[in-house]
């Protein structure tokens, strides 16, 4: 990028995802029940001058878990310390993170279901009593030393709440289940984002983007940025025609299915005669991780009424067959 351009371009100009992130609960679109529950918990803690209770945020990717963790830190006016389950592979890793926390700091652990078991058990005591037992020395001479921690608020995020052991899940004072967003909510998301980007899009164009964003704000903002690129390169206004042309270029169909969604649905219909088919068999047939299919693709296909999950496996619905252009056998 040329120097003068890089000097002028701000993160918002660049349209980086983070630059569009809501900074307060008021700016956070949708999830009305979660916002009310979270607002109550934060206000009550502030009135008591206490650190808020620990919060678990569960839901598919891109629905606002990281955003909410940042909002919690902003609302309590304390620093946010971010890490992730995969980065905590030993109890020592967690002890280092916890002992560095200052009073009232918010600790965000993304993908908390992927933390090492030894660290998980250390977290139980830390969450409940703000202390950890550190093993000092090795072998017969090893001793356990209690370490007092500063009071903190843990915000855990997971796309697989079912994988969390009960002792960990039970220690969260509040669990928020983030749902997919409605088309109207996503229209608000992209209306706000287009204003931040200074990119004017017609109302019907914004509604079209929202309708094809798989119920997910991250995707809505990403599609908006692609339409913005298309509009710039082709020197065309952000109207419905530009939206449709840009989304066609990026293989997003009328219902918001992307290439992988269609591949999975087509595999169930054509290779497994509509199902039932098991998750691992389906994952192998499309060359994807089972976790991606289960956490990203399926929740959307099920919500769109194209696929159902049965005890015997995944089954395509009549709508699913028709979406592929076939009739159920
Ligand atoms: N409720 C919302 N209102 C407006 N924008 C939102 C909302 N939720 C998410 N976004 C936008 O979507 C982007 C992705 O959200 P975020 O990173 O919080 O998702 P996530 O659930 O943490 O995803 P992952 O599980 O992949 O970490 C944010 O940068 C933000 O711009």
TrEMBL record:
**Where Mg(2+) is bound, by residue?**
66
**Database matches in Pfam families:** AAA_lid_4, RuvB_N, WHD_RuvB
Its principal location?
Answer: cytoplasm
Where in or outside the cell it occurs: the entry states:
Cytoplasm
**What does the subunit comment say?**
Homohexamer. Forms an RuvA(8)-RuvB(12)-Holliday junction (HJ) complex. HJ DNA is sandwiched between 2 RuvA tetramers; dsDNA enters through RuvA and exits via RuvB. An RuvB hexamer assembles on each DNA strand where it exits the tetramer. Each RuvB hexamer is contacted by two RuvA subunits (via domain III) on 2 adjacent RuvB subunits; this complex drives branch migration. In the full resolvosome a probable DNA-RuvA(4)-RuvB(12)-RuvC(2) complex forms which resolves the HJ.
Task: Write out the domain note.
Answer: Has 3 domains, the large (RuvB-L) and small ATPase (RuvB-S) domains and the C-terminal head (RuvB-H) domain. The head domain binds DNA, while the ATPase domains jointly bind ATP, ADP or are empty depending on the state of the subunit in the translocation cycle. During a single DNA translocation step the structure of each domain remains the same, but their relative positions change.
What's the protein name?
Answer: Holliday junction branch migration complex subunit RuvB
Taxonomic lineage of the native organism: Bacteria, Bacillati, Actinomycetota, Actinomycetes, Micrococcales
């Amino acid at each position: 990028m040329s120097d003068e351009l890089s000097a002028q371009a701000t993160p918002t100009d660049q349209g980086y995802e983070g630059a569009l992130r809501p900074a307060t609960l008021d700016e956070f679109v949708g999830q009305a029940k979660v916002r009310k529950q979270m607002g109550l918990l934060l206000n009550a803690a502030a009135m008591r001058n206490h650190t808020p209770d620990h919060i678990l945020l569960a839901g598919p990717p891109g629905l606002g878990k990281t955003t909410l963790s940042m909002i919690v830190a902003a609302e309590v006016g304390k620093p946010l310390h971010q890490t992730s389950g995969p980065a905590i592979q030993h109890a020592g890793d967690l002890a280092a993170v916890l002992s560095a926390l200052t009073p009232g700091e918010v600790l965000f652990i993304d993908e908390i279901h992927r933390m090492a078991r030894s660290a998980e058990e250390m977290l139980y005591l830390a969450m409940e009593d703000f202390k950890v037992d550190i093993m000092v020395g090795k072998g017969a001479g090893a001793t356990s030393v209690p370490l007092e921690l500063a009071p903190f608020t843990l915000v855990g995020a997971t796309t697989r709440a079912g994988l969390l052991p009960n002792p960990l899940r039970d220690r969260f004072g509040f669990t928020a289940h983030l749902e997919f967003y409605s088309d109207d909510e996503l229209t608000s998301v992209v209306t706000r984002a287009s204003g931040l980007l200074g990119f004017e899009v017609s109302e019907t164009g914004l509604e079209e983007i929202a309708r094809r964003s798989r119920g997910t704000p991250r995707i809505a903002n990403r599609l908006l940025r692609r339409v913005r690129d298309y509009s710039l390169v082709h020197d065309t206004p952000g109207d419905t025609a530009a939206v449709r042309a840009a989304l066609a270029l990026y293989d997003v169909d009328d219902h918001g299915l992307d290439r992988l969604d269609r591949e999975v649905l087509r595999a169930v219909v054509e290779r497994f005669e509509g199902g039932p088919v098991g998750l691992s068999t389906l994952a192998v047939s499309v060359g994807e991780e089972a976790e991606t299919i289960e956490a990203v693709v399926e929740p959307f296909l099920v919500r769109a009424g194209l696929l159902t999950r049965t005890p015997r496996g995944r089954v395509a619905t009549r709508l699913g067959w028709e979406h592929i252009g076939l009739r159920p056998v």
